[in-house]
Amino acid sequence: MHWVLILGDKRGDQKRHFGKMDFVDNSLDPATGTIRGRALVPNPGGFLTPGQFGRLQLLGSGEFDALLVPDSAILSDQSRRFVWALGKDDIPEQRVVEPGNLERGLRIIRAGLQRDDRIVINGMQRVRPGARVTPTSGQIEPLAGS
Description:
This protein has about 150 residues and is mainly β. Helices cover about 0% and strands about 40% of the residues.
């Protein structure tokens, strides 16, 4: 299992260091919500020192193909998360989705959309159920700097 250690200095600059998990305990401490683990990370030049703190991002799986949509295209209705997808004759319909983590500034969709679905990414406030829309092509791009 790979991970990324992000260390920041007093000016707010961040540096990423990559490592590999060597051991992960099989139980969670219910009092603190933590789990013990051990990782191996190269330390050239001694950038890691005793007592230093950092933020650790632990990846739960390897890379996989996923649908990515802008966070702004995902709306909420009580406890459901949905997107507007264009159905037959360009009539929008709500598609309940299961959002995942952010990747490159875009939200992973775990379930609820197919690869060829067309979704509304701009102007969601003007969409009305059952009312035809006039779609225009749009491009979904990762956020700059991600």
